[in-house]
Amino acid sequence: MKVTTVGIDLAKNVFQIHGVSEFGKPLIKKQLRRNQMAEFFVNLPPCLVGMEACGSAHHWARKLQAMGHTVKLMAAQFVKPYVKTNKNDAADAEAICEAVTRPNMRFVPIKNVEQQSVLLLHRARQGFVKARTAQANQIRGMLSEFGLIIPLGIRHIANHVPELIEDASNVLPGSFRLLIERLLNHLKELDRQVDELESQIVAWHRQSEASSKLARIPGIGPITASALVASLGDAKSFDSGRQVAAWLGLVPKQHSSGGRQNLLGISKRGDSYLRTLLIHGARSVVLRASLKSDPNRTCSWINDVVNRRNKNVAAVALANKNARIAWALLTHDRRYEAGYIASKASA
Predict the structure, then answer these.
(1) Confidence at 141, pLDDT banded by 50, 70, 90
(2) Fold exhibited by the domain 5-108
(3) Can you give the pTM of this predicted structure?
């Protein structure tokens, strides 16, 4: 009998393989070392291969596709219900093999090398930003032990701390002054790393036509646009803009029963980094909308939401709207026009 579907439980060194026929009969149950994977699948007739979207999944997906296989990636939480017994590698591979054949399964778009490299730049930048914030808070906490309070905001660290450690009237030990100076140098180095990575991201953004289109949307800049393009991959893999917003966790979480609708806060599913960028960008638009004396259609809509609810709800609503607009621009290959919806509605 011919193997038609294969489930792979990915790992660092040992991979569990589970293959079945078109009738669901198990034909392959084995473990493979990393150096055996290519040899095994190049000799296997083309079939459907399922994997969880985890570490190295996109790498193996591209490699197996080049061998003629049809590869589909799934989120781990969608595979978990198909695990029949206790969790182990064999049970996970069997669950993946079964889940990939479900007609209503949701799949993760496979990213190419360029998209992955851009996302890694974003992840590295995010790590340096977190380290910079932690370093600034450490300096602020150490100085507070001596009664020296720094105003909130990371920019005040560089503006006020050098003056404090140079002030001879402060009862600060010499060793402590040297320590703070060392931490300040570390903070400057982290700041430099963030700026360099951001420059690389902006350079890629300027070369990408799709990313440049998204940057024209109010509330989306080069950082958010490049992250959206690299994360979405092929936007046509999503059925609608609403599905993109749900994928990013920008829609209400439901707890409904008995025909009674009960909507909670946003679900916060998907990529928290991308969702945070969209919401922070929307906050700036909400702020500008409140300052304009002659608001346009978008500004009036935002102000209406702010008056009915609050600024946080308006920011999330605009982030949801921007995600749907981004999907429409990428799917239909259009450029953003501020009055596009208004002109269509009036027509």
Answers:
(1) very high
(2) Nucleotidyltransferase; domain 5 (3.30.420)
(3) 0.85
